Amino acid sequence: MKLNINKLLYTSLAFSVLATGCLADLDLKPTDSVDQATSIKTVSDLNTGVVGVYAGFAAANTQYATSLLTDEATMPLENNTGRGVIVYRWQYDAGGGETAPAWANYYDVIDRGNRLLKVIDGIPATDAELATKNRLKGELLGLRAFAHLELLRYYAVDYEPTSPGVPVMTVSQLSKPGRETVGKVLEQINKDLTDAKALIPTSFTPNTRITLNAITAIQARAALLQKNYDAAIGFATEIINKAALASRTQFPNIWLDTDNTEVIWKLKRDNGQERLGTNYRDLTGRIIYAPAFKLMDLFDKTNDIRFASYFKALNTSPTNPRWTVQKFVGGQAALVNLADAKLFRVAEMYLIRAEAYAKQGAAGLLSGNADLTTLRTARIAGYVPVAYATPDALLTAVIEERFKELAFEAHRYVDLRRNNLPINRGPNDVAQAQGAVNLTTDRREYYIPIPNAEIMANEVIKQHPKWQ
Predict the structure, then answer these.
(1) Which one, 308, 326, 413, 446, has least CB within 10 Å?
(2) How far is 228 from 220, CA to CA, in rounded Å?
(3) CA-CA distance, 59 to 65, in Å (whole number)?
């Protein structure tokens, strides 16, 4: 892309230097471009560059904006900062600053990866280093696929194969690409993931990097988006057969970053990096956005281990209750709100598989019910299974369970879009919404526009029809 993406093409590896602190020896030319052929000379250099690609992800860009856009969060009276108000009240436009950053961030990550992929095959490797070099290439392909998938989920016109998706970037170059169709974007995503899977060994297992399990989890999410339900079931099953759900004892510690059970892939957040929790309660203790009562009221507050893990009551006032999102506070008192960003968990695989079964019709009812029961039993003490008698009833239950399980993890907006459902806020969540209560699929604000700066710099790319 031009503007933003062309700028990123010149500077993204320089940002990688800043993000990792490990590439200080690179000598940037006056153009701010980097000659990878002279900068990346060894497999060790390559690994440092790959770390820089990971460091480029800013998870808060999508988690924050989509939480405000949907029915997950509510704006309390004490939020006098103005943060997020435009998005929360659905008054934003394509020039806004809160729905746009994800676009530049994901393409920045893609460009960082493409720069390394351009030179990786020419980097010499000893016999002992060859497996590492191949694995690093697999990681880069997986990262590129994930970034394209997230862009597609948020910025596609819709999710039909022939509809406008997003530009596909497989090389680092100055260009003015247009939107590829959704089908073409998914084709590239699927190819990258398949290629990556052949390069990453089973012995490589750190959950802060792209592993085979991470690749399979991305494949499951992508398959559900493209309505390939057999594939979604197959990929989700691959994970479920290898990785367990957290127990009720383990589950709270996931959010304190002291237990990694069921975490497939997470972005490690260190001091000086984004603090996800400050999007909800800042370091002064002021609640910026609180969990929606609509969301909290769905939980068994006594027996569901998720409730106390996700939410915290700061007082017991019946007239002015103060609740905060506890999910991203983390486990370090000196670094409050600095929690790792969990991108994929085993729970999502159960929900993907249950939804795929529901969408296969009556034949999938028994299996879909079983997956939902397994997840709920792991979370809710004394859970009594409920058997949903129709595919529609099961699907409704799965969507609600995704709302609960994956709250504030940037799924709710896409879940509503995938199922053509409106955004409806609860009656106790709209005191400061100024009428932003029901957002239907025919309204332009239901869709996230491509940033105006991109449209202005690249006449080839077309805005979402609702925003034209």
Answers:
(1) 308
(2) 9
(3) 11
The tokens describing 459, both together, are 């006449």
Residue 318: count of CB within 10 angstroms of its CB = 6
Comparing C-alpha atoms, which of 188, 186, 197, 196 is closest to residue 170?
Answer: 188
Q: Given CA atoms 396, 401, 406, 407 in this order, what sign does their dihedral have?
A: positive
Write the CB contacts of 237 (distance below 8 Å, at least 6 apart in sequence).
Answer: 353
Question: Is the pTM value of this prediction over 0.90?
Answer: yes
Q: What is the pLDDT along the chain (468 residues), one digit of tens a residue?
A: 443 443 343 333 333 332 332 222 222 232 333 455 468 999 999 999 999 999 999 877 777 788 999 999 999 999 999 899 999 999 999 987 777 889 999 999 999 999 999 999 999 999 999 999 999 999 999 999 999 999 999 999 999 999 999 999 999 877 899 999 999 999 999 999 999 999 999 999 999 999 999 999 999 999 999 999 999 999 999 999 999 999 999 999 999 999 999 999 999 988 888 898 999 999 999 999 999 999 999 999 999 999 999 999 999 888 888 999 999 999 988 899 999 999 999 999 999 999 999 999 999 999 999 999 999 999 999 999 999 999 999 999 999 999 999 999 999 999 999 999 999 999 999 999 999 999 999 999 999 999 999 999 999 999 999 999
Could you tell me if 70 and 158 are in contact, meaning their C-beta atoms sit under 8 angstroms apart? no
Burial class (CB in 10 A: 0-12, 13-18, 19+), 217: buried
Question: Using CA atoms, how far apart are residues 243 and 212, in angstroms rounded to an integer?
Answer: 12
